[in-house]
Amino acid sequence: MRAHLTGDVGSAEFLNSLLALGEGIIPADTNGFVNVQGLSTVVTTPATLRQLLETVPGVLHAYKSADRTPDPAEMANFPVEFLNSLHPAGLPPHILELKVEIPVILLRNLRPPKLCNGIRMVIQALHPNIIEAKIITGCGKGEQVLIPRMHFYPSDADVPFTFRRSQFPVATCFAITINKAQRQTLSVTGVHLEEQCFSHGQLYVAFSRVGRREDVFLYSPSQKAKNVIFSLSLSLSLSLSLSLSLSFIISFHSDFS
Q1: Residue 241, pLDDT score
Q2: How many CB atoms lie under 10 A from the CB of residue 119?
Q3: Contact, 1 vs 174, CB < 8 A?
Q4: In the chain, where are the structural domains located?
Q5: Which residue has the higher pLDDT, 24 or 234?
Q6: Is the pLDDT of residue 163 over 60?
Q7: Where are the transmembrane segments (predicted)?
Q8: What is the DSSP string of the chain?
């Protein structure tokens, strides 16, 4: 575990608390919420995107999209100001604020397999009609790429009419989901739980990305966190591990007998 990396007394205590959290030993209230003061530093106000951007040195560039309906006659019913205010899922915002050296995520497939939806990049240079970026995930990791503007059309499920947004196909990605954070080791982690965990072991995964309590910061409106633990899953995992160990011992004994 990552708590072993530092090797100090505080890390050992953090490790024991993490194990208790993952096994569901930490007492929870009737709604499944646990007190995580011993596992993290609880903050009362989450950081906004603008505050995160301000921590990065450099000039802030604001790119505005060009929004319109395919039929010019519909512009009277859906003025540009109204279209600018919409932010359907999967589309970049009307005003896209970027800085050099900030992380972004690609929202569309441009050149598979290197430039696919979900690939993360770091901005290298910003121009009026092109973005220079370096890929930091996937098979194209380390490669310099150029990102142009492109047209976006929201799905009928998000907007009951058709309009087109011309914008860069990227969005800032200072945060990732807990599931995507699995197998990653971080120096500092902030856990934003405005919406609580809903699946087995998610809270354990979120807190165990670092090796010390001092490196975990939690925001939760209730200042507590919901710890979802399915006891049956733990029992099945333990039974499977014992079965595999027993099978290995029998096989090993048979090979040398």
Answers
A1: 54
A2: 25
A3: no
A4: 2-46+194-228, 49-172
A5: 24
A6: yes
A7: 228-252
A8: -GGGTT-SHHHHHHHHHHHHHHTT-S-B-TTSEE--TTTSEEESSPPPHHHHHHTS-S--EEEE-EEE-SSGGGGGTS-HHHHHT---TTS--SEEEE-TT-EEEE-S-SBTTTB-TT-EEEEEEE-SSEEEEEE-SSTTTT-EEEEE-EEE---TTT-SS--EEEE-SEEE-S---TGGGTT---SSEEEE-SS---STTHHHHHHTTSS-GGGEEEE-TTSSEE----HHHHHHHHHHHHHHHHHHHHHHHHHT-
Q: Give me the residues paired with residue 146 across strands.
A: 132
> Which is nearest to 171 in space by CA: 53, 91, 57?
91
pLDDT tops 90 at residue 77? no
Band of residue 252 on the pLDDT scale cut at 50, 70, 90: very low
Residue owning tokens 């609880």: 42
**Type of residue found at 21:** L
**The pTM is what?**
0.71
Tokens of 47: 């950081």
